Amino acid sequence: MSNETPLLCIDRLTVRYGMRAAIADLSLEVGGSEIVALLGPNGAGKTTLLRAIAGIARCDSGSITVAGAREPRLRERGVTLVPENPTVYDELSADEHLAFVARGRRLAPSWQTEATTYLERFELAHVRTAPTATFSKGMRQRLLVVAALLVHARVVLFDEPMVGLDPLAQKTLIQAFGELRARGAAVVVSTHQLEAAAQSADRVVILDRGALTAELRPHEFGGSDRRSRPRTWRRRHADDRTCSARPGPAEAMVDRRAAVAAPGRPVDRRGRDDRRRHRNGRFGGGRGASGS
Q1: Which of 57, 79, 118, 286 has its CA 20 to 30 A from that of 150?
Q2: At 240, phi and psi to the nearest 5?
Q3: Is 49 in contact with 38 (CB distance < 8 Å)?
Q4: Hey, is 246 helix, strand or coil?
Q5: pTM of the entire structure?
Q6: What is d(CA 169, CA 160) in angstroms, rounded to the nearest whole number?
Q7: Burial state string for 129-140 with b = 16 or more CB within 10 A and e = fewer than 16
């Protein structure tokens, strides 16, 4: 990070859920035009940290400053969060959802032109007037990303943004990260995907049990050599699919089921239905058993 005053400054932050510290005495600074990736196992505190920055999770101690503002209401105006679970108003269309965001954030009238551009880029232009209740999870995720880009916040937070996106949408999102950097925004991305972090991040922060355990540059872990990865990540997650080329138990089970269900040919749902109907007819309960 440069010597300029950071846009996001977290100083000795602690967030507790009951007796458990989800975030423990954590300090972090993110400058303008910088992308920081948060990596860590499930339960490490990544989502809690993002929610605390956005003003959703209550902070037990420490401080968070966004563009010089520490008071929560002023701070939250400069922050936009795209959550992992994309929640939208089902009764609104994509256009209406973006208009709702524009009114709430008091965006300039030019937001409509920009929205059209982003909807086209994220392949939502053809469904912009459809109710979001008909959208898949990936489509909802893309809509929230579009809304975040429209706001032009000083600090933009993404919680597992790649989940639910197809490869083309992931590539478009990584390009959007670069645009946010060019605008001068501070971008924080929580992810389990090492490749995505290596492609987009300027700096990688690894969390474990609510504490910052390592801070490094993408080239220090992005290679194929496992020895280049942080020791805590390598030791505790040697069996994680993101850190190993071996297929996980779920992948192996899928392969075995495919081989047993349809040796030599792909599994087809209609084929299973046909076999089920044939079995019912042969062994009773179907039309084949009652026809004679």
Answers
A1: 57
A2: -70, 140
A3: yes
A4: coil
A5: 0.74
A6: 14
A7: eebbeebeebbb
